[in-house]
């Protein structure tokens, strides 16, 4: 495999949607930047000798045929959309490493019994519409037309954005795969944490993925003049929201593997000298144990309702998404462990705290993941970085894993 080719492609793809000031990359779903990125990935897939198609949700698929075209396909890949001002490696590395692995097979004349397909899934991040993993949900057959009515900050629905980008939402069911025709899914991704770095390892094997729960809190009080309204006469939803957020962090710190993030906050009408009338904020709550996460959610909901009643604030809690934690397939874990040994690396397993497309396939097909070391664990940032050597090591492990899974047994 060619380390320089893989690295060049990472940098080339990372230049699409790049901001000159911050160095960050922004490629949101169904935008011109995303279209340019898809076109470049299509070019790479064709250079690798893959047959390329695009499904009705916009996921790009490159296929390397197997000796038996009717055998269940081995899937690999990730996504190429980003968060606002994100990095060059999140998602993109998994797509480009998979293309490199299959290109190496073709260049060496290596055939597998099963076909292998590289997936560049549409909108894993959910940054634009508040609903992530659109492409993987569609393939798993769990994405609904009702979910496509969610809107971005300009009020545009996913349906409308798809139509503007040339897709037909009414054909959504055509993106659903047949589990009987899929042997498994393997995703390579940067770790986005520091476990590998702290253990001085370039590559790790994921044992399972923590499930994200996304909630939106909307608190409505009464607007008023900032100077003329006494403190004890206010119905300030921002004061109420701050108490709820403080409770969230206090309770989450008591749970060993749980993490909570308030990522978006909006106060309306937004004047410096105006007491807000309404406040919205989101909560991202995760744990590898779904029962623990559910207990924590229950505490948060109960406290939010209690403090809102006490302060005469109207509260609405909306569910944006609820994803169950996803254990990885023992078959794929074993294949990845063998692949590490073939690559001269010591097998090492760890849990993924971040969500990934693979978690959509727990009821669809065997699923597994391979992690590549992230410098200082930084991700969703222009400072996101994995070295060329680590990217190459992860790609080699992916290559051997895919080869094993794509052989007849």
From TrEMBL:
Q: Which cofactor does it need?
A: Zn(2+)
Q: Where does Zn(2+) 1 bind?
A: 79, 90, 189
Q: Which GO terms describe its molecular function?
A: hydrolase activity, acting on carbon-nitrogen (but not peptide) bonds, in linear amidines; metal ion binding
The UniProt annotation places Zn(2+) 2 binding at 90, 125, 380
UniProt domain Peptidase M20 dimerisation: residue ranges = 211-309
Q: Which family does it belong to?
A: Belongs to the peptidase M20 family.
TM helices/strands, residue ranges: none
**Keyword set for this entry?**
Hydrolase, Metal-binding, Zinc
Q: Can you say what this protein is called?
A: Allantoate amidohydrolase
- Species name: Paenibacillus terrae (strain HPL-003)
Q: Which CDD domains match?
A: M20_bAS (cd03884)
Cofactor binding description: Binds 2 Zn(2+) ions per subunit.
By its UniProt entry, which InterPro entries does this protein fall under? Amidase_Cbmase (IPR010158), Bact_exopeptidase_dim_dom (IPR036264), Peptidase_M20 (IPR002933), Peptidase_M20_dimer (IPR011650)
């Amino acid at each position: 495999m060619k380390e320089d080719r893989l690295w060049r492609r990472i940098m080339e793809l990372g230049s699409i949607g790049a901001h000159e000031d911050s160095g960050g990359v922004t490629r949101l779903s169904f935008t011109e930047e995303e279209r340019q990125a898809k076109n470049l990935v299509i070019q790479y897939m064709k250079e690798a000798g893959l047959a390329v198609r695009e499904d009705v949700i916009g996921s790009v698929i490159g296929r390397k045929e197997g000796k038996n075209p009717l055998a269940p396909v081995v899937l690999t890949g990730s996504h190429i959309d980003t968060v606002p001002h994100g990095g060059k490696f999140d998602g993109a590395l998994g797509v480009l490493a998979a293309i490199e692995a299959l290109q190496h097979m073709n260049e060496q004349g290596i055939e597998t019994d099963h076909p292998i397909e590289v997936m560049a899934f549409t909108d894993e991040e959910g940054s634009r519409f508040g609903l992530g993993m659109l492409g993987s949900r569609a393939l798993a057959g769990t994405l609904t037309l009702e979910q496509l009515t969610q809107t971005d900050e300009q009020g545009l629905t996913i349906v409308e954005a798809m139509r503007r980008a040339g897709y037909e939402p009414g054909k959504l069911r055509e993106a659903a795969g047949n589990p009987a025709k899929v042997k498994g899914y393997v995703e390579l991704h940067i770790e986005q944490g520091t476990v590998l770095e702290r253990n001085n390892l370039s590559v790790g094997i994921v044992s399972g993925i923590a499930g994200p729960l996304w909630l939106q809190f909307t608190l409505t009080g009464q607007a008023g003049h900032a100077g003329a309204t006494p403190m004890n006469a206010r119905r300030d939803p921002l004061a109420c929201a701050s108490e709820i957020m403080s409770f969230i962090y206090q309770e989450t710190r008591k749970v060993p593997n749980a993490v909570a993030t308030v990522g978006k906050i909006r106060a309306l009408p937004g004047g410096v000298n105006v007491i807000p009338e309404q406040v919205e904020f989101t909560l991202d709550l995760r744990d590898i144990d779904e029962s623990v996460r559910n207990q924590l959610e229950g505490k948060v909901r109960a406290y939010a309702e209690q403090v809102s009643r006490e302060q005469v604030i109207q509260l609405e809690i909306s569910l944006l998404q609820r994803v169950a934690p996803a254990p990885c397939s023992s078959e794929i874990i074993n294949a990845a462990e063998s692949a590490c040994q073939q690559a001269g690396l010591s097998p090492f397993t760890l849990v993924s705290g971040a969500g990934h497309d693979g978690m959509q396939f727990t009821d669809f097909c065997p699923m597994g993941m391979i992690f590549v070391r992230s410098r200082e664990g930084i991700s969703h940032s222009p400072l996101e970085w994995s070295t060329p050597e680590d990217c190459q090591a992860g790609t080699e492990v992916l290559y051997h894993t895919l080869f094993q899974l794509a052989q007849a047994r």
